[in-house]
Specification:
The protein is α/β, with parallel strands linked by helices. It has helices spanning 42-57, 66-82, 84-95, 99-108, 110-119, 156-169, 184-196, 210-218, 232-244, 267-278, 299-312, 331-347, 382-385, 401-409, 424-433, 466-471; strands at 4-5, 8-10, 13-15, 22-26, 33-38, 126-128, 135-143, 146-150, 173-177, 203-205, 223-229, 248-252, 258-261, 291-295, 350-353, 372-375, 392-398, 413-414, 416-420, 438-441, 456-457, 460-461, 474-482. The structure holds nicotinamide-adenine-dinucleotide (NAD). Nicotinamide-adenine-dinucleotide is lined by residues 150-154, 159, 177-180, 210-211, 214-215, 218, 229-231, 234, 237-238, 252-255, 286, 387, 389, 415, 455, 460.
Protein backbone atom coordinates (compact mmCIF):
# COMPACT_ATOMS: atom_id res chain seq x y z
CA UNK A 1 0.00 0.00 0.00
CA UNK A 2 1.27 3.51 -0.86
CA UNK A 3 2.20 5.46 2.24
CA UNK A 4 0.10 8.53 2.83
CA UNK A 5 1.39 11.69 4.55
CA UNK A 6 -1.06 13.34 6.93
CA UNK A 7 -1.07 16.95 8.08
CA UNK A 8 -2.10 18.60 11.34
CA UNK A 9 -4.84 21.22 11.69
CA UNK A 10 -3.58 24.37 13.38
CA UNK A 11 -5.45 27.67 13.24
CA UNK A 12 -7.42 26.54 10.19
CA UNK A 13 -4.32 25.53 8.22
CA UNK A 14 -3.07 22.06 7.30
CA UNK A 15 0.54 21.87 8.38
CA UNK A 16 3.46 19.49 8.72
CA UNK A 17 5.53 19.67 11.88
CA UNK A 18 7.78 22.75 11.91
CA UNK A 19 10.76 20.39 12.20
CA UNK A 20 9.58 18.46 9.13
CA UNK A 21 9.70 15.22 11.16
CA UNK A 22 7.19 12.38 10.83
CA UNK A 23 6.51 9.08 12.55
CA UNK A 24 5.05 5.95 10.98
CA UNK A 25 1.59 4.50 11.38
CA UNK A 26 1.82 0.70 11.26
CA UNK A 27 -1.14 -1.55 10.49
CA UNK A 28 -1.03 -4.10 13.32
CA UNK A 29 -2.61 -6.80 11.15
CA UNK A 30 0.05 -6.93 8.46
CA UNK A 31 2.79 -4.88 10.17
CA UNK A 32 3.03 -2.58 7.15
CA UNK A 33 3.68 1.13 7.35
CA UNK A 34 0.72 2.73 5.61
CA UNK A 35 0.89 6.37 6.68
CA UNK A 36 3.25 9.02 8.02
CA UNK A 37 2.07 11.41 10.70
CA UNK A 38 3.66 14.77 11.70
CA UNK A 39 5.88 14.52 14.76
CA UNK A 40 5.00 17.71 16.59
CA UNK A 41 7.30 19.32 19.11
CA UNK A 42 7.06 22.31 21.45
CA UNK A 43 6.91 24.80 18.54
CA UNK A 44 3.86 23.10 17.01
CA UNK A 45 2.19 22.76 20.40
CA UNK A 46 2.72 26.45 21.00
CA UNK A 47 1.25 27.34 17.59
CA UNK A 48 -1.83 25.16 18.23
CA UNK A 49 -2.46 26.55 21.72
CA UNK A 50 -1.95 30.11 20.45
CA UNK A 51 -4.50 29.49 17.68
CA UNK A 52 -7.00 28.05 20.15
CA UNK A 53 -6.40 30.92 22.56
CA UNK A 54 -6.93 33.53 19.86
CA UNK A 55 -10.07 31.79 18.64
CA UNK A 56 -11.36 31.91 22.22
CA UNK A 57 -10.34 35.47 23.09
CA UNK A 58 -10.58 37.45 19.85
CA UNK A 59 -12.18 35.09 17.34
CA UNK A 60 -15.90 34.77 16.67
CA UNK A 61 -16.37 31.68 18.87
CA UNK A 62 -17.03 33.34 22.21
CA UNK A 63 -19.27 35.97 20.60
CA UNK A 64 -21.38 33.35 18.88
CA UNK A 65 -24.73 32.79 20.52
CA UNK A 66 -24.96 29.33 22.11
CA UNK A 67 -27.65 28.15 19.68
CA UNK A 68 -25.25 28.79 16.79
CA UNK A 69 -22.58 26.69 18.50
CA UNK A 70 -25.19 23.97 18.97
CA UNK A 71 -26.14 24.09 15.29
CA UNK A 72 -22.48 23.66 14.28
CA UNK A 73 -22.15 20.65 16.54
CA UNK A 74 -25.25 19.08 15.04
CA UNK A 75 -23.93 19.73 11.53
CA UNK A 76 -20.70 18.01 12.56
CA UNK A 77 -22.74 15.02 13.74
CA UNK A 78 -24.41 14.81 10.32
CA UNK A 79 -21.02 14.89 8.59
CA UNK A 80 -19.67 12.10 10.78
CA UNK A 81 -22.73 10.02 9.90
CA UNK A 82 -21.91 10.53 6.20
CA UNK A 83 -18.29 9.42 6.70
CA UNK A 84 -18.64 6.37 8.94
CA UNK A 85 -17.13 3.91 6.49
CA UNK A 86 -13.98 5.91 5.84
CA UNK A 87 -13.38 6.86 9.47
CA UNK A 88 -14.00 3.33 10.76
CA UNK A 89 -11.66 1.86 8.14
CA UNK A 90 -8.90 4.23 9.26
CA UNK A 91 -9.43 3.25 12.90
CA UNK A 92 -9.18 -0.45 12.05
CA UNK A 93 -6.05 0.14 10.01
CA UNK A 94 -4.53 2.14 12.86
CA UNK A 95 -5.38 0.00 15.89
CA UNK A 96 -6.41 -3.41 14.54
CA UNK A 97 -9.85 -3.46 16.17
CA UNK A 98 -12.65 -5.15 14.25
CA UNK A 99 -14.16 -3.08 11.46
CA UNK A 100 -17.56 -4.41 12.56
CA UNK A 101 -17.03 -2.82 15.99
CA UNK A 102 -15.43 0.40 14.77
CA UNK A 103 -18.13 1.04 12.18
CA UNK A 104 -20.87 0.54 14.78
CA UNK A 105 -18.97 2.78 17.19
CA UNK A 106 -18.31 5.56 14.68
CA UNK A 107 -21.94 5.28 13.53
CA UNK A 108 -22.98 6.03 17.13
CA UNK A 109 -20.65 9.03 17.60
CA UNK A 110 -22.98 11.62 15.96
CA UNK A 111 -25.28 11.20 18.96
CA UNK A 112 -22.65 12.90 21.18
CA UNK A 113 -22.60 15.95 18.94
CA UNK A 114 -26.40 16.04 18.69
CA UNK A 115 -26.87 15.65 22.44
CA UNK A 116 -24.28 18.21 23.53
CA UNK A 117 -25.22 20.49 20.61
CA UNK A 118 -28.69 20.45 22.17
CA UNK A 119 -27.26 21.40 25.56
CA UNK A 120 -25.23 24.36 24.26
CA UNK A 121 -28.12 26.80 24.74
CA UNK A 122 -29.38 25.28 27.99
CA UNK A 123 -26.54 26.33 30.26
CA UNK A 124 -28.39 28.25 32.92
CA UNK A 125 -27.09 30.30 35.81
CA UNK A 126 -29.15 30.99 38.89
CA UNK A 127 -30.31 33.84 41.03
CA UNK A 128 -29.29 32.96 44.58
CA UNK A 129 -31.23 34.00 47.65
CA UNK A 130 -29.06 36.09 49.99
CA UNK A 131 -29.22 37.36 53.55
CA UNK A 132 -28.41 40.93 52.45
CA UNK A 133 -31.53 42.96 51.62
CA UNK A 134 -29.82 45.49 49.33
CA UNK A 135 -27.77 42.96 47.41
CA UNK A 136 -28.50 40.77 44.43
CA UNK A 137 -26.44 37.66 43.56
CA UNK A 138 -26.43 35.48 40.52
CA UNK A 139 -24.14 32.81 39.10
CA UNK A 140 -22.84 32.34 35.58
CA UNK A 141 -21.27 29.25 34.05
CA UNK A 142 -18.34 30.20 31.88
CA UNK A 143 -16.01 28.17 29.66
CA UNK A 144 -12.39 27.72 30.77
CA UNK A 145 -10.78 28.80 27.50
CA UNK A 146 -8.36 26.40 25.85
CA UNK A 147 -8.95 22.72 26.60
CA UNK A 148 -6.19 20.17 25.95
CA UNK A 149 -7.97 16.94 24.96
CA UNK A 150 -5.68 13.90 24.94
CA UNK A 151 -6.92 10.48 23.86
CA UNK A 152 -5.83 6.84 23.93
CA UNK A 153 -5.48 4.64 20.85
CA UNK A 154 -8.23 2.12 21.52
CA UNK A 155 -11.23 4.23 20.39
CA UNK A 156 -9.77 7.51 19.11
CA UNK A 157 -12.91 9.13 17.73
CA UNK A 158 -15.28 7.98 20.46
CA UNK A 159 -12.93 9.22 23.17
CA UNK A 160 -12.53 12.49 21.27
CA UNK A 161 -16.33 12.83 21.14
CA UNK A 162 -16.55 12.34 24.93
CA UNK A 163 -14.38 15.45 25.26
CA UNK A 164 -15.00 17.66 22.24
CA UNK A 165 -18.78 17.59 22.25
CA UNK A 166 -19.23 18.97 25.81
CA UNK A 167 -16.12 21.18 25.66
CA UNK A 168 -17.29 22.95 22.49
CA UNK A 169 -20.93 23.11 23.57
CA UNK A 170 -19.73 24.90 26.71
CA UNK A 171 -17.90 27.48 24.57
CA UNK A 172 -14.27 26.38 24.96
CA UNK A 173 -11.75 25.96 22.16
CA UNK A 174 -9.71 22.77 21.89
CA UNK A 175 -6.29 21.38 21.09
CA UNK A 176 -6.83 17.67 20.47
CA UNK A 177 -3.93 15.23 20.62
CA UNK A 178 -4.59 11.61 19.61
CA UNK A 179 -2.29 8.74 20.51
CA UNK A 180 0.84 8.19 18.44
CA UNK A 181 -0.41 4.61 17.93
CA UNK A 182 -3.61 5.72 16.17
CA UNK A 183 -3.61 9.31 14.90
CA UNK A 184 -4.96 9.06 11.36
CA UNK A 185 -8.70 8.78 11.99
CA UNK A 186 -8.51 11.91 14.16
CA UNK A 187 -6.65 13.86 11.45
CA UNK A 188 -9.21 12.78 8.86
CA UNK A 189 -12.06 13.64 11.22
CA UNK A 190 -10.59 17.14 11.70
CA UNK A 191 -11.52 17.90 8.07
CA UNK A 192 -15.17 17.74 9.05
CA UNK A 193 -14.82 20.76 11.35
CA UNK A 194 -13.90 22.84 8.31
CA UNK A 195 -16.79 21.40 6.31
CA UNK A 196 -19.24 22.04 9.14
CA UNK A 197 -18.16 25.70 9.24
CA UNK A 198 -16.37 25.95 12.59
CA UNK A 199 -14.22 29.10 12.72
CA UNK A 200 -10.46 28.57 12.35
CA UNK A 201 -8.66 27.76 15.59
CA UNK A 202 -11.69 26.50 17.50
CA UNK A 203 -10.46 22.92 17.05
CA UNK A 204 -6.80 22.18 16.42
CA UNK A 205 -5.34 18.70 16.05
CA UNK A 206 -1.68 18.03 16.73
CA UNK A 207 0.07 14.67 16.56
CA UNK A 208 3.23 13.36 18.14
CA UNK A 209 4.71 11.29 20.92
CA UNK A 210 3.15 12.12 24.26
CA UNK A 211 6.47 11.48 25.96
CA UNK A 212 8.11 14.16 23.76
CA UNK A 213 5.57 16.95 23.53
CA UNK A 214 2.83 16.05 26.05
CA UNK A 215 4.29 18.20 28.83
CA UNK A 216 4.54 21.17 26.45
CA UNK A 217 0.81 20.86 25.92
CA UNK A 218 -0.45 20.18 29.45
CA UNK A 219 2.03 22.64 31.00
CA UNK A 220 1.28 25.42 28.49
CA UNK A 221 0.21 28.53 30.41
CA UNK A 222 -2.67 29.18 28.01
CA UNK A 223 -4.18 25.72 28.53
CA UNK A 224 -6.76 26.05 31.29
CA UNK A 225 -8.35 22.60 31.32
CA UNK A 226 -6.99 19.14 30.59
CA UNK A 227 -9.22 16.26 29.62
CA UNK A 228 -7.23 13.05 29.38
CA UNK A 229 -7.95 9.40 28.59
CA UNK A 230 -5.10 6.96 28.97
CA UNK A 231 -3.04 4.98 31.41
CA UNK A 232 -2.81 5.44 35.15
CA UNK A 233 0.91 6.29 34.88
CA UNK A 234 0.40 9.10 32.35
CA UNK A 235 -2.66 10.28 34.29
CA UNK A 236 -0.58 10.62 37.46
CA UNK A 237 2.09 12.54 35.58
CA UNK A 238 -0.47 14.91 34.03
CA UNK A 239 -2.14 15.37 37.39
CA UNK A 240 1.15 16.56 38.87
CA UNK A 241 1.73 19.05 36.07
CA UNK A 242 -1.86 20.31 36.21
CA UNK A 243 -1.77 20.51 40.01
CA UNK A 244 1.25 22.83 39.85
CA UNK A 245 -0.94 25.47 38.24
CA UNK A 246 -4.27 24.31 39.76
CA UNK A 247 -5.59 23.50 36.29
CA UNK A 248 -8.90 21.69 36.11
CA UNK A 249 -8.63 18.06 34.98
CA UNK A 250 -10.90 15.26 33.86
CA UNK A 251 -8.93 12.01 33.96
CA UNK A 252 -10.23 8.72 32.55
CA UNK A 253 -7.70 6.03 33.37
CA UNK A 254 -7.32 2.27 33.59
CA UNK A 255 -9.22 -0.50 35.32
CA UNK A 256 -9.16 -4.04 36.66
CA UNK A 257 -12.86 -4.62 36.64
CA UNK A 258 -14.55 -7.61 38.30
CA UNK A 259 -17.32 -9.53 36.56
CA UNK A 260 -19.11 -11.32 39.43
CA UNK A 261 -21.18 -14.38 38.54
CA UNK A 262 -23.47 -15.78 41.25
CA UNK A 263 -24.88 -19.31 41.20
CA UNK A 264 -28.39 -17.90 40.69
CA UNK A 265 -27.46 -16.07 37.44
CA UNK A 266 -28.83 -16.85 34.00
CA UNK A 267 -25.62 -18.67 33.10
CA UNK A 268 -25.95 -18.40 29.30
CA UNK A 269 -26.36 -14.65 29.48
CA UNK A 270 -23.57 -14.38 32.04
CA UNK A 271 -21.17 -16.40 29.87
CA UNK A 272 -21.86 -14.12 26.91
CA UNK A 273 -21.36 -11.08 29.15
CA UNK A 274 -18.06 -12.41 30.47
CA UNK A 275 -16.82 -13.03 26.93
CA UNK A 276 -17.99 -9.59 25.76
CA UNK A 277 -16.20 -8.08 28.75
CA UNK A 278 -12.83 -9.64 28.05
CA UNK A 279 -12.54 -10.75 24.42
CA UNK A 280 -14.28 -7.89 22.63
CA UNK A 281 -11.70 -5.50 21.20
CA UNK A 282 -9.08 -8.14 22.09
CA UNK A 283 -9.52 -7.04 25.70
CA UNK A 284 -8.16 -3.58 24.87
CA UNK A 285 -10.87 -1.64 26.66
CA UNK A 286 -10.57 0.30 29.86
CA UNK A 287 -13.67 -1.45 31.22
CA UNK A 288 -12.46 -4.98 30.37
CA UNK A 289 -13.97 -7.45 32.84
CA UNK A 290 -10.56 -8.93 33.44
CA UNK A 291 -11.33 -10.57 36.80
CA UNK A 292 -14.04 -13.24 36.68
CA UNK A 293 -15.31 -13.78 40.23
CA UNK A 294 -17.10 -17.10 40.21
CA UNK A 295 -19.22 -18.65 42.96
CA UNK A 296 -17.96 -22.01 44.19
CA UNK A 297 -21.02 -24.10 43.36
CA UNK A 298 -21.01 -23.21 39.63
CA UNK A 299 -17.26 -22.87 39.19
CA UNK A 300 -16.56 -25.83 36.90
CA UNK A 301 -19.80 -25.76 34.91
CA UNK A 302 -19.64 -22.03 34.22
CA UNK A 303 -15.99 -22.08 33.35
CA UNK A 304 -16.69 -24.77 30.78
CA UNK A 305 -19.30 -22.52 29.10
CA UNK A 306 -16.82 -19.64 28.92
CA UNK A 307 -14.07 -21.93 27.62
CA UNK A 308 -16.33 -23.27 24.88
CA UNK A 309 -17.02 -19.80 23.51
CA UNK A 310 -13.42 -18.59 23.94
CA UNK A 311 -11.95 -21.69 22.27
CA UNK A 312 -14.10 -21.11 19.17
CA UNK A 313 -13.26 -17.42 18.81
CA UNK A 314 -11.83 -16.78 15.36
CA UNK A 315 -8.65 -14.72 15.20
CA UNK A 316 -7.93 -13.00 11.93
CA UNK A 317 -8.23 -10.04 9.60
CA UNK A 318 -10.12 -7.31 11.48
CA UNK A 319 -11.75 -6.14 8.25
CA UNK A 320 -13.57 -9.46 7.76
CA UNK A 321 -17.06 -9.81 9.20
CA UNK A 322 -16.54 -13.31 10.60
CA UNK A 323 -13.42 -12.43 12.60
CA UNK A 324 -14.01 -12.33 16.38
CA UNK A 325 -10.61 -11.18 17.56
CA UNK A 326 -8.19 -8.90 15.73
CA UNK A 327 -4.54 -8.26 16.48
CA UNK A 328 -3.50 -6.10 19.41
CA UNK A 329 -2.64 -2.56 18.49
CA UNK A 330 1.14 -2.41 18.56
CA UNK A 331 4.32 -4.42 19.11
CA UNK A 332 4.77 -2.65 22.49
CA UNK A 333 1.32 -3.77 23.54
CA UNK A 334 1.97 -7.32 22.27
CA UNK A 335 5.22 -7.54 24.25
CA UNK A 336 3.62 -6.07 27.37
CA UNK A 337 0.78 -8.63 27.30
CA UNK A 338 3.20 -11.50 26.83
CA UNK A 339 5.27 -10.29 29.78
CA UNK A 340 2.10 -10.22 31.95
CA UNK A 341 1.25 -13.78 30.86
CA UNK A 342 4.72 -15.06 31.72
CA UNK A 343 4.62 -13.33 35.09
CA UNK A 344 1.20 -14.88 35.87
CA UNK A 345 2.57 -18.35 35.20
CA UNK A 346 5.66 -17.64 37.28
CA UNK A 347 3.38 -16.56 40.14
CA UNK A 348 1.58 -19.91 40.01
CA UNK A 349 -1.56 -19.11 38.01
CA UNK A 350 -2.80 -22.08 35.97
CA UNK A 351 -3.17 -21.30 32.26
CA UNK A 352 -6.13 -23.36 30.96
CA UNK A 353 -6.43 -21.62 27.58
CA UNK A 354 -4.08 -19.63 25.37
CA UNK A 355 -1.05 -18.25 27.15
CA UNK A 356 2.16 -16.61 26.02
CA UNK A 357 2.49 -17.61 22.40
CA UNK A 358 4.02 -16.80 19.10
CA UNK A 359 1.87 -15.55 16.28
CA UNK A 360 -1.13 -17.70 15.59
CA UNK A 361 -0.16 -19.33 12.28
CA UNK A 362 -3.75 -19.39 11.07
CA UNK A 363 -4.26 -15.70 11.60
CA UNK A 364 -1.72 -14.08 9.26
CA UNK A 365 1.27 -12.06 10.36
CA UNK A 366 -0.42 -9.78 12.85
CA UNK A 367 0.21 -9.30 16.53
CA UNK A 368 -2.23 -11.88 17.84
CA UNK A 369 -2.78 -12.89 21.45
CA UNK A 370 -4.84 -16.04 21.91
CA UNK A 371 -7.81 -15.77 24.29
CA UNK A 372 -6.17 -16.65 27.59
CA UNK A 373 -7.74 -17.91 30.81
CA UNK A 374 -5.99 -18.33 34.13
CA UNK A 375 -7.36 -20.27 37.09
CA UNK A 376 -5.77 -20.73 40.49
CA UNK A 377 -5.51 -16.97 40.67
CA UNK A 378 -5.51 -15.22 44.00
CA UNK A 379 -6.49 -11.60 44.06
CA UNK A 380 -3.10 -10.37 45.24
CA UNK A 381 -1.26 -11.68 42.18
CA UNK A 382 0.07 -9.28 39.59
CA UNK A 383 -2.33 -10.76 37.00
CA UNK A 384 -5.30 -9.84 39.26
CA UNK A 385 -4.07 -6.37 40.21
CA UNK A 386 -2.44 -4.91 37.09
CA UNK A 387 -4.20 -3.90 33.90
CA UNK A 388 -3.14 -6.22 31.05
CA UNK A 389 -5.18 -4.59 28.26
CA UNK A 390 -5.46 -7.85 26.34
CA UNK A 391 -7.80 -10.87 25.98
CA UNK A 392 -6.73 -12.30 29.33
CA UNK A 393 -9.15 -13.48 32.00
CA UNK A 394 -8.22 -14.28 35.61
CA UNK A 395 -10.73 -16.53 37.37
CA UNK A 396 -11.13 -16.19 41.13
CA UNK A 397 -13.46 -18.25 43.35
CA UNK A 398 -15.75 -16.90 46.04
CA UNK A 399 -18.04 -18.50 48.63
CA UNK A 400 -20.67 -15.88 49.29
CA UNK A 401 -21.75 -12.32 48.61
CA UNK A 402 -19.57 -10.88 51.37
CA UNK A 403 -16.44 -12.46 49.97
CA UNK A 404 -17.37 -11.44 46.42
CA UNK A 405 -17.64 -7.79 47.47
CA UNK A 406 -14.33 -7.94 49.35
CA UNK A 407 -12.48 -9.36 46.35
CA UNK A 408 -14.21 -7.03 43.89
CA UNK A 409 -13.15 -3.97 45.91
CA UNK A 410 -9.65 -5.21 46.67
CA UNK A 411 -8.00 -3.27 43.83
CA UNK A 412 -6.64 0.24 43.51
CA UNK A 413 -8.83 0.67 40.42
CA UNK A 414 -12.53 1.49 40.39
CA UNK A 415 -13.69 1.92 36.82
CA UNK A 416 -16.44 -0.67 36.35
CA UNK A 417 -17.95 -3.94 37.57
CA UNK A 418 -20.47 -6.53 36.41
CA UNK A 419 -22.95 -8.46 38.57
CA UNK A 420 -24.81 -11.51 37.26
CA UNK A 421 -27.71 -12.75 39.38
CA UNK A 422 -31.47 -13.27 39.17
CA UNK A 423 -31.97 -12.32 42.80
CA UNK A 424 -33.68 -8.93 42.70
CA UNK A 425 -32.63 -7.95 46.22
CA UNK A 426 -28.99 -8.66 45.40
CA UNK A 427 -29.23 -6.83 42.07
CA UNK A 428 -30.59 -3.76 43.83
CA UNK A 429 -28.31 -3.78 46.86
CA UNK A 430 -24.94 -4.83 45.48
CA UNK A 431 -24.22 -1.86 43.16
CA UNK A 432 -24.06 0.41 46.22
CA UNK A 433 -21.41 -1.82 47.78
CA UNK A 434 -19.06 -1.92 44.79
CA UNK A 435 -16.48 0.85 44.63
CA UNK A 436 -16.59 1.58 40.91
CA UNK A 437 -17.86 4.40 38.71
CA UNK A 438 -20.06 2.11 36.60
CA UNK A 439 -21.83 -1.08 37.70
CA UNK A 440 -23.59 -3.23 35.14
CA UNK A 441 -26.21 -5.70 36.38
CA UNK A 442 -26.96 -8.61 34.04
CA UNK A 443 -25.26 -6.79 31.19
CA UNK A 444 -21.75 -5.50 30.45
CA UNK A 445 -19.93 -2.78 28.49
CA UNK A 446 -22.98 -0.62 27.79
CA UNK A 447 -22.32 3.12 27.46
CA UNK A 448 -24.39 6.02 26.21
CA UNK A 449 -23.93 9.71 25.48
CA UNK A 450 -26.80 10.27 27.94
CA UNK A 451 -25.40 8.58 31.04
CA UNK A 452 -22.39 9.46 33.23
CA UNK A 453 -19.14 7.55 32.85
CA UNK A 454 -15.95 7.80 34.87
CA UNK A 455 -13.82 6.11 37.48
CA UNK A 456 -13.48 5.85 41.24
CA UNK A 457 -10.12 5.59 42.99
CA UNK A 458 -7.12 5.54 40.60
CA UNK A 459 -9.40 4.99 37.60
CA UNK A 460 -9.78 8.74 37.41
CA UNK A 461 -11.62 11.88 38.34
CA UNK A 462 -14.54 13.67 36.74
CA UNK A 463 -17.36 12.38 34.59
CA UNK A 464 -17.85 12.13 30.86
CA UNK A 465 -21.20 11.79 29.05
CA UNK A 466 -24.62 12.87 30.25
CA UNK A 467 -25.48 16.29 31.65
CA UNK A 468 -22.66 16.05 34.21
CA UNK A 469 -20.09 16.13 31.41
CA UNK A 470 -20.80 19.67 30.26
CA UNK A 471 -20.18 20.91 33.82
CA UNK A 472 -16.62 19.59 33.54
CA UNK A 473 -15.98 22.28 30.93
CA UNK A 474 -17.59 25.19 32.78
CA UNK A 475 -16.48 27.20 35.76
CA UNK A 476 -18.96 28.98 37.97
CA UNK A 477 -18.80 32.68 38.69
CA UNK A 478 -20.68 34.46 41.46
CA UNK A 479 -21.79 38.04 40.66
CA UNK A 480 -22.88 40.53 43.37
CA UNK A 481 -24.86 43.67 42.57
CA UNK A 482 -25.61 46.29 45.17
CA UNK A 483 -28.85 48.32 45.15
CA UNK A 484 -27.86 50.27 48.27
CA UNK A 485 -28.12 54.03 47.94
CA UNK A 486 -25.32 54.74 50.41
CA UNK A 487 -22.20 52.71 50.76
CA UNK A 488 -21.34 51.20 54.13
CA UNK A 489 -18.24 51.42 56.30
CA UNK A 490 -15.37 50.34 53.98
CA UNK A 491 -13.49 48.66 56.85
CA UNK A 492 -16.23 46.22 57.70
CA UNK A 493 -17.04 43.20 55.54
CA UNK A 494 -20.71 42.85 54.75
P1 LIG B 1 -1.10 6.29 27.43
O1 LIG B 1 -1.23 6.87 28.78
O2 LIG B 1 0.18 5.66 27.05
O3 LIG B 1 -1.39 7.40 26.32
C1 LIG B 1 -2.59 8.12 26.28
C2 LIG B 1 -2.36 9.45 25.60
O4 LIG B 1 -1.49 10.22 26.42
C3 LIG B 1 -1.67 9.35 24.24
O5 LIG B 1 -2.21 10.30 23.38
C4 LIG B 1 -0.22 9.70 24.57
O6 LIG B 1 0.49 10.22 23.50
C5 LIG B 1 -0.45 10.75 25.64
N1 LIG B 1 0.69 11.02 26.51
C6 LIG B 1 1.70 10.21 26.85
N2 LIG B 1 2.56 10.86 27.68
C7 LIG B 1 2.05 12.10 27.87
C8 LIG B 1 2.46 13.23 28.61
N3 LIG B 1 3.57 13.25 29.33
N4 LIG B 1 1.68 14.34 28.57
C9 LIG B 1 0.54 14.36 27.84
N5 LIG B 1 0.11 13.32 27.12
C10 LIG B 1 0.86 12.20 27.12
O7 LIG B 1 -2.32 5.27 27.27
P2 LIG B 1 -2.64 4.33 26.01
O8 LIG B 1 -1.70 3.17 26.01
O9 LIG B 1 -2.77 5.17 24.80
O10 LIG B 1 -4.11 3.84 26.37
C11 LIG B 1 -4.38 2.72 27.15
C12 LIG B 1 -4.82 3.16 28.53
O11 LIG B 1 -5.92 4.05 28.42
C13 LIG B 1 -5.30 2.00 29.38
O12 LIG B 1 -4.79 2.15 30.68
C14 LIG B 1 -6.80 2.17 29.37
O13 LIG B 1 -7.46 1.60 30.48
C15 LIG B 1 -6.94 3.65 29.33
N6 LIG B 1 -8.26 4.03 28.82
C16 LIG B 1 -9.17 4.56 29.70
C17 LIG B 1 -10.44 4.88 29.27
C18 LIG B 1 -11.44 5.46 30.23
O14 LIG B 1 -12.41 6.05 29.77
N7 LIG B 1 -11.27 5.32 31.54
C19 LIG B 1 -10.81 4.67 27.93
C20 LIG B 1 -9.85 4.14 27.06
C21 LIG B 1 -8.59 3.82 27.51
Amino acid sequence: MRTQDYKMLIGGEWLSAESGEYFQSINPYNQEEWARVPRADAADVNAAVKAAHEAFTIGPWSKMIPSERGALLRKLGDLIAQNVKELATLETRDNGKLYAEMSAQVGYIPQWYYYFGGLADKIEGMVHPTDKPDMFNYSRHEPYGVVAAITAWNSPLLLAAYKLAPALAAGNTVVLKPSEHASCSTLQFARLFEQAGFPAGVVNVITGYGSEMGDDLTGHPQVSKISFTGSEATGRHINEIAGGDFKSTTLELGGKSPNIVFADANLDNAANGVIAGILAASGQTCVAGSRLLLQDSIYDAFLERVMTIARDAKLGDPMLPDTNIGPVASKDQYDKINRCLEMAMAEGANCILGGPADKNPEAGQGLFIQPTIFTNVSNNMHIAQEEVFGPVLSVIRFKDEKEAIEIANDTRYGLAAGIWSQNMKRCLELPAKIKAGTVWVNTYRVVSYMTPFGGYKVSGTGKENGIEAIKQYLQMKSVWLSTAETSSNPFLIR
